[in-house]
């Protein structure tokens, strides 16, 4: 039986799960591919700590032994961090080793360079596990939809924020309460900033858009907003109006140019993403010949992510055994032009926190009319007239530039409180509401 050696870098949540998968399911690789997988090297930051590994695996500090092993064709990088593993991945690719990574931060910052380096050296850089955990969305875009032109990708790609918003919706928890629960259950980090700010989702949708559209999307061009401004009041009003609030990541071709965004949005109840709950992820891909197709599964956690790493490993093993190398990119992807964010069109939801005084409705409707925004409905609610009231406004489709102008004029007026904000509305796949 053929044997293939791999070097594993990192033994945290994902690295540990992947190693256990290889140990528990070694017979599956042998049965399906006729190959045994050996892990002679496990590279960690601190080799003095005991690790539960098989006798054939040597735990080493640093990754030089993996790079110097000429009989080892595959490096699996699961250490994390945008910069720390960069020298490892660069050197491994330069030496003709295939690399598998789950590191979205590394790919977002350096993916264009690394993919070109892989192609230059005739090897592959695989990263199924970097986006959406156990959902094989990279394989869908690069293989299953190879004969299609992808028009848009709309998804929930961050399990932490989806769990928080689910708990806020279903249990009426505050943002702080839902976040604390997510941290207790291990769905949120001790410092959740990257997740709740939308940064994690922006890295992921940038990668998906780059893969789908064949051009590299600069992370700086992604419109990124988080969920920290979403209140229980917003959720209750939106539910009553037929929406769920989700952190939605989108990559759309607009006049042939990518528009890539991440923001909390109102999702109609008939939209496939509306039912994606808790820590699950969901991705809706629209392509020219297949049309809309939906992919859902666990988006985070050691075991789901390890499953995707194993999928990449299986693909590489097939190529090695058949002496064939598949290269998804022929070289450096061209940098994508950025679609002007101000030209983005959507329906919108405004939540104005206002003083209880005459003229507020007239102010809001007047400014909307002057900026060319058509109002669908206006609702006002207060429980104590001595306190600020909540004014909810739904408007027809408008350009982002119009909405920003109207919002800035309204919130600058007397009687409008700083807590006011607005959200966008995601259309149903068929264009309905």
For this entry, give a set of tags.
alpha/beta, Alpha-Beta Plaits, 3 domains, 433 residues, Dihydrodipicolinate Reductase, domain 2, 6-stranded parallel β-sheet, 26% strand, elongated, Rossmann fold, 10-stranded mixed β-sheet
Written description of the protein model:
It is a single chain. The chain is built from 14 helices and 16 strands. Helix 4 runs parallel beside helix 5 (104-120), helix 7 (159-170) packs across helix 8 (175-184) and helix 13 runs antiparallel to helix 14 (400-411). It has three domains: 2-133 and 302-321, Rossmann fold, CATH 3.40.50; 145-298, Dihydrodipicolinate Reductase, domain 2 (2-Layer Sandwich); 341-425, Alpha-Beta Plaits, CATH 3.30.70.260. The mean pLDDT is 94. The strands form two sheets. Strands 7, 8, 9, 10, 11, 12, 13, 14, 15 and 16 form a ten-stranded mixed β-sheet that branches. By secondary structure, the chain is of the alpha/beta class. 35% of the residues lie in helices and 26% in strands. The longest helix is centred in the last third of the chain and has 20 residues, at 302-321. The chain has helices spanning 13-24, 26-33, 64-68, 86-94, 104-120, 137-144, 159-170, 175-184, 193-196, 199-213, 232-240, 302-321, 360-370, 400-411; strands at 2-9, 35-44, 58-61, 74-77, 98-101, 125-126, 150-156, 223-224, 243-254, 257-268, 280-287, 291-298, 345-354, 375-381, 389-399, 421-425.
